[in-house]
Amino acid sequence: MINATGNPQSLLLLGGTSDIALAIARTYARRGGGLRVVLAARPGERRTGAAAELSALGCRVTEVDLDARDHASHAATIDAAFAEGDVDVAVVAFGLLGDAEQAWQDPELALELAEVNYAAPVHLGVLLANRLKDQAHGVIVALSSVAGERVRRSNFVYGSTKAGFDGFYLGLGEALRGTGARVLVVRPGFVRSKMTDGMDEAPLAATPQEVADATVAAVTAQRDLIWVPAPMRFVMSGLRHVPRPLFRKLPL
Amino acid sequence: MNAFVRNAFPAMPGGGSDLDLPHIRPSGIEEQPPLPQQLVEIHGWGRAAGAMSHLHGIESVADVVSALRQGGGRGVTPRGLGRSYGDAAQNSGGITLDLTRLDKILSVDAASEPPTVTLQAGVSIDTLMKALLPFGLWVPVLPGTRQVTIGGAIAADVHGKNHHTQGSFGNHVRSFDLLMPDGSVKTLDRPAGDTWDALDDDGRLFWGTIGGMGLTGAIVGAVVELQRVETAYFTVDTDRCSDIDDLMARMSTGDDSYNYSVAWFDAVTRGKHMGRAVLTRGDKAKLSQLDPKRRREPLRFAAPSFGTIPEVFPNRMVNVATAKAFSEFWFRKAPKHQVGALQNITAFFHPLDIVAEWNRLYGPNGFLQYQFVVPFSAHETFKRCFEMIVTSGHLSCLNVLKRFGPGNLSPLSFPMPGWTLTVDLPIEAGLDKLCDALDEEVVSVGGRVYLAKDSRLTAERFRQMYPRLDAFLAVRDRADPEHLFISDLARRLAL
């Protein structure tokens, strides 16, 4: 249960090695004792390292295998994640950025982005929602992106997957109303993380910790959609309505 | 299946169970239609951490059995009037049984010594007091509100202003009827043994259910021992205390000469007058102590209600200005020193019952009540906790300080000899840090917090606070091996 002061007892990270997901876990771990964390990710050094770090912060960590592209394994992943009890906050954090120019010309890479960033989150999202509906409490935190809000030429394959992702989780949040389960869609702008390593930084860039702080605050406040940083909301609100011929000319 | 049904109504000496209502016949249970499934939001009195749960209004024991069968994967939770502040009487995704319609007082035995009442568990203390007072009978333990059910009073082992002389509610329960997970009703009598090791399985189930937060089964009926009174009034001595040291000194030396003792303290004022308080202590008034006017109706139950708080208040109604104003008013309205004043039940016991739904004053975010006890030897820790609260910036108006007497055999019962303190804190950022820090102090000296008011403790801390937890778990696992009886509190505390 998320207790009266807003602290969850259990956390599930789908994409358990994501910088943002781990920042969320650290933030909750620092807030209250006895947090149980399920790290769902591909097995390997990164997952082991993340588990060790969270254990050192006082968390009880379980590692669960997650392979986004192996749809047949998803149900078992979710079963394993709930094996030790209710999940209070589930973060859907896995995703691929890919090389934008390669992605729209390489069918295999395009398919991989579509599967990892959209098809798998939809499949896992339905499995998660069924669990949360049964337990009648819990929050799905869907890490979307402003890239999906207005898809740009510069990374439109990625952007289109995030557009679908964003739409699915917003809709899922509506569908879950009245069941006790909730969805929070988080739309970060440019985040300095291993995903964006080596890229030129965009304006209003945020750190994973800033995204985590905003997310934790929004879960407590029971919000269903946030932008990080908050002013990004107004930037995107403007950009969304820029006419296509003009939008094409913007240096985005 | 038939054996299962018949178990629900075991043959009682003298024929028929106390709970066998005229319109329910065991043979009728099979034809009970499924209870309506309604997913509704329910919450504790603090209104924080609510839950969506299937709420079943229960009108008979047969209904309870029917609900148990439909339990599904998320179990069932008995619920009374919902005055527990936290999540003890809610069950996210599962079934919550509203037992308040099991509200019959079945018989009163006024001739025996002590007198007793046999009743269904959904009867409220308010109802019971009103019924008993005309006969000069008195409920021996009254919590801070009369709006609790007998079942809830047993399950939370509630205490009152007379804990130091009379113990908690469980001490006065002669027997109760427990609906078990298999649908049978077990009558459990208070065992003779006075140590845990001396108890047999039923004796342990008796004491495990007292304070057991509804996790051993649903209490559906009880026999409670009563006391005799000549009047419905109290003789009350009031003292204003200038600070926390003054208060603790007066309570340490004087409490034993009164049956009832409690202090309200100011948790807002800092500095020299930190911990200024109003100490009220008293005893039941005898007929000879009443003035002629009151003597005409000595057992009149005075319980005025000045209406209901509407649900219009925003968060932060309790702020620096209102908290200071309230604290000043509450302190000043008390006489500096008064001896032998006559007060009625409401004035002495339940000033908050005058206003219904007062929890709405805290706005939609709600509040939590933090009540802890530490042994008398931890005098300094107690004062440190007190100072942490006052200087935290979190504001509390309704603050109570008391001295507990000896606890009882129940492994999860809250009271133990020592100082206990209660504060009402609105839910605001940083409150978790304050409460965690308080937990740490409390645990370090072998103290604990009260489960009936808890909505935030972690399983680890809880285990440290209740060293007899394993005894309780053994009782519960024997009574309910599949953990059909569960609650959000139980999930949170890994019970």
Automatic annotation (TrEMBL), chain A:
Top-level class of the enzyme under EC nomenclature: oxidoreductase
UniProt entry keywords in alphabetical sequence: Oxidoreductase
Superkingdom of the organism of origin: Bacteria
Keyword Glycoprotein among UniProt keywords: no
SUPFAM superfamilies for this protein: NAD(P)-binding Rossmann-fold domains
MF (Gene Ontology): oxidoreductase activity
Enzyme Commission code(s) on record: 1.1.1.333
Family: Belongs to the short-chain dehydrogenases/reductases (SDR) family.
UniProt protein name: Decaprenylphospho-beta-D-erythro-pentofuranosid-2-ulose 2-reductase
Automatic annotation (TrEMBL), chain B:
Domain FAD-binding PCMH-type: 48-229
Keyword line: Oxidoreductase
PROSITE patterns xrefs: FAD_PCMH
EC number per UniProt: 1.1.98.3
EC class: oxidoreductase
Top-level lineage group: Bacteria
InterPro entries, per database record: ALO_C, FAD-bd_PCMH, FAD-bd_PCMH-like_sf, FAD-bd_PCMH_sub2, FAD_lactone_oxidase-like, Oxid_FAD_bind_N, Vanillyl_alc_oxidase_C-sub2
Keyword presence, Transmembrane: no
One Gene Ontology molecular-function label: FAD binding
GO cellular component, one term: membrane
Keyword Magnesium annotated: no
Entry-linked PANTHER family: D-ARABINONO-1,4-LACTONE OXIDASE, L-GULONOLACTONE OXIDASE
Name of the protein in its database record: Decaprenylphospho-beta-D-ribofuranose 2-oxidase
Organism of origin: Microlunatus antarcticus
